[in-house]
Amino acid sequence: MNRRSFIATTGASVVSWNAFAAPSEKVNIGIMGAGGRGTALAKSFSKIPGVQIGFIADPDFNRATNAAGEVEKLSGKAPKIDKDFRKILDDKDIDVFVCAACNHWHAPSTILAVKAGKHTYVEKPCSHNPREGEIMVEAAAKYNKLVQMGIKGALGLKFVKPSILFIKVKLAKLTSLNLGI
Questions:
Q1: 53 in any annotated domain
Q2: What is the tens place of the pLDDT at every residue in 83-97?
Q3: Distances (CA, A) of 134 to 28, 114, 124
Q4: Rounded-to-integer distance, Cα 138 and Cα 25, Å
Q5: Which of 15, 98, 144, 158 has the maximum number of C-beta atoms within 10 A of its C-beta?
Q6: What is the C-alpha separation between 170 and 35, in angstroms, rounded?
Q7: Per the domain annotation, does 8 fall within a domain?
Q8: Residue 97 lies in a domain
């Protein structure tokens, strides 16, 4: 995807570009949580050109296996699977961490993910209290990573797609963006 198709696809107006470089070929996503929401996100993300699901982690290995099977049906490539989400954080090929696990994991996993160098998409609620949210913001700033909180279907793929595409371009040094949704 090039800059022109990115803007056309998202309906975005770019405010500032700084040393724009060609984006990597694919955004590789690791998903924590393979229940209904995690699997739905994996399937949605699999449909976005230039996006690949590289890892799915869930303590219930059967859920992870089933979600990986759904991704493979859509993309032709099965992601790695594990019970331990920290394997996603350790995987240097993963660009984006998605937290679709239980609510009590949203803030801690997001903080660990940005510390591990991953841009992060986290489902709502992002935290249990304001202080957790502040720590998330501090971590994102400290490690220079994007954190996007999902709003589960309120805007659907129309909103998620620009978020992931923004991360793809961010990997190539985009510095600012306004979305016209």
A1: yes
A2: 999 999 999 999 999
A3: 27, 14, 15
A4: 30
A5: 98
A6: 29
A7: no
A8: yes
